[in-house]
Amino acid sequence: MLKLTGHMDRIPFVATAAGAGYQQIARLPVAVVLDNVRSLYNVGAFFRTADAVRLRRLYLCGITGRPPKRAITKTALGAEERIDWEHTWDPIPLIEALRVQGFEIAAVETAVHAVDLFEWAPRFPVCLIFGHEVEGIRSELSALADTHVRIPMLGAKHSLNVATAGGVVLYELLRKHLAAQAALGHRAIR
Fold first, then answer.
1. DSSP β-bridge partners for residue 57
2. Which of 18, 43, 44, 172 could form a disulfide with 76 if both were Cys (CB 3.0 to 4.6 A apart)?
């Protein structure tokens, strides 16, 4: 039984009735490639979100910072110690290897030809590519993508912060994967 005291009366989601349906999730069959993401705070936020959705793996590529770094730890709050991750300078061979393993490669960007995130029917497992905060995904990586996905933007701005975009897309993939598993009659998500 959980003991609740003062302002710390928060209980983990998985301990609630609503969280019971998520108990069987081992790993969300999604990998994330962060290519040349400059901000260590954004990297830390990706680690924290990756932990929240039980991401399969996080790939830190190019100049993307990697643990141990104080700014990553400050934002990740320890999640960087629980998530499988690796660094590579060149993401192209990595993406090609993931394709051979059956991953759908999806570039998350604001390109005109991109499909709306909410209309996208992903083929799991999925590898998401996120690029530089200002310059976006490099053209040679974008060319490797099977799918280009964009988040609907209704305001004056055309994009979200990369870590915020990551959270939106990862939770939508979690929702879609749960729905697909339910349609197949599976309870466990691998």
1. 31
2. 44
Separation of alpha carbons 167 and 108, rounded Å: 12
CA angle (46 as vertex; 43, 49 as ends), nearest 5: 155
What does the block give as tokens for 163? 């870590």
Q: Which residues of 119-147 are buried (b: 16+ CB within 10 A; e: fewer)?
A: ebebebbbbbbbbbeeebbbeebeebbeb
Q: Which pLDDT tens digits describe the chain residue by residue (190 residues)?
A: 455 555 556 766 666 666 666 666 688 999 999 999 999 999 999 999 999 999 999 999 999 999 999 999 999 999 999 999 999 999 999 999 999 999 999 999 988 899 999 999 999 999 999 999 899 999 999 999 999 999 999 999 888 999 999 999 999 999 999 888 878 775 544 4
* Alpha helix segments (H runs only) across the chain: 40-53, 70-76, 91-100, 139-142, 162-184
